[in-house]
Amino acid sequence: MAAAIAAGGGSAAVAAAVRTAEIAFYRSVRDSAIANGQQCAQLHQALRDLGTGGA
Fold this sequence. Notes:
- This protein has a domain at 18-55.
- The chain has three helices and no strands.
- It has helices spanning 2-6, 11-35, 41-49.
- The radius of gyration is 13 Å and the shape is elongated.
- The two termini are 22 Å apart.
- The model has no long low-confidence stretch (mean pLDDT 85).
């Protein structure tokens, strides 16, 4: 995200960088939850909300 801002990116570029970071975060937390036998339905929903289809 900082790279998008530093490169002088407009709001669309910054928003795309934020979305990409959020997807990576939720996927990481989801994978950890699965590995530890925890529920992750809310994480799947968050990923669907971000447009990934839950994956």
